[in-house]
Amino acid sequence: MTDSTGPAGAGAPRELEGQIALVTGGSRGIGRAIAEALAAGGARVAVIARGGERAAEVAEALPGAGHAGFGCDVAEPDSVRAAVGAVQAAVGETSILVNNAGLTRDGVLMRLKDEDWDEVLGVNLKGAFNLTRAVVRGMMRRRDGVILNVTSVVGLMGNAGQANYAASKAGLIGFTKSAARELASRNVRCNAIAPGFIKTRMTADLDSAVLADLRARIPLERLGEPDDVAQLARFLAGPRARYITGQVIAVDGGMVM
Ligand code: NAP
Hints:
Elements: E1 20-24, H1 29-40, E2 44-49, H2 52-61, E3 68-71, H3 77-90, E4 96-99, H4 114-142, E5 145-150, H5 153-157, H6 163-183, E6 188-195, H7 208-217, H8 226-237, E7 248-251
Parallel strand pairs: 1-2, 1-4, 2-3, 4-5, 5-6, 6-7
Helix pairs in contact: 1-8, 3-4, 4-6
NADP nicotinamide-adenine-dinucleotide phosphate is lined by residues 24-25, 27-31, 49-51, 54, 72-75, 100-103, 123, 150, 152, 195, 197-198, 200-203.
C-alpha cells in the first residue's frame, strides 16, 4: 500500500497537490516546519512574517516550486489585505490558511502594561481574524477550504505570568469553534492545534530549572520538535481529515489530558 503521508519518495502521491497554503509566522519555528510539511505534501506555500526578506528566503528553500514569501504584520488589517492580494497574484487563491503567527509578552498580571495586553491580543487573536476574514470569501465560493489556528495548551489550562497570552489562545479556541460552525455548510473546515512546549525561539530562554520542572509535567518527558506539530497540520489540511472540524487537538507529549 502506498502511504501518501509518508516520506516523499520519488513518484509518491502527494495529498495536497493543487492546494495553496498561506502560513503566517512561517519564517521560523513551528510556522516554518508547517510550511515545510505542507510543501512536502504538494501544496504551494505563501510564507508570511513581518520580516519579509526572511520569509522569502524560507519560501525559496521549501521543497517543490511556486512558493513565495511576503512581509506582513498580521495585527494590521491593511497590511493583511495587501499581503493576501499579493499572495493571490503571485501564488494563487488561498485554500489552506494556517494562523500561526504569535508572540508572548509575559508578566504577572498586576504589572502587565496596556501595550503588553494589546500587542499579544492584536497579533495572536485579531491577527487570526484579520487573515480569516481576508481569505474566507474565496473558500466559501469554492466550497472548499481549511483553516488551522495554532493555539496553545496554555489557552486550555492557563499559566501564571501569561494572562494576556492565555486569553489570546483561549479566544482563538472560541474563534475556531464559531468559524467551524459558521463555515461547515460551505465545506470549509476549521480546527485548532494546541502545542505544548516546543523547541523554538519562543521557549529558548527558559532556564534549566524551569525546563526540568516542565519535563516532570510531560508524560513523554521531553519538549516537542516543531515537526511534531507540523505533521498534525499536514494531516488536518488534507483529505484524510475531511470529517474533522471544530476540534482542538493537543500536541504536547500528554501534558493535557
Ligand atoms: P517563533 O519561533 O517566535 O516564531 C514566530 C513567528 O511569527 C515568526 O515567523 C515571526 O516572524 C512571526 N510573527 C510574529 N509576530 C508577527 C506579526 N505581527 N505578523 C506576522 N508575523 C509575525 O514562535 P513559535 O514558537 O514557532 O510559535 C508559533 C506559534 O505557536 C505561536 O502562535 C505560538 O503562540 C504557538 N505556540 C508555541 C509554543 C512553543 O512552545 N514554542 C507552544 C504553544 C503554542 P517576524 O518576527 O519576522 O514577524
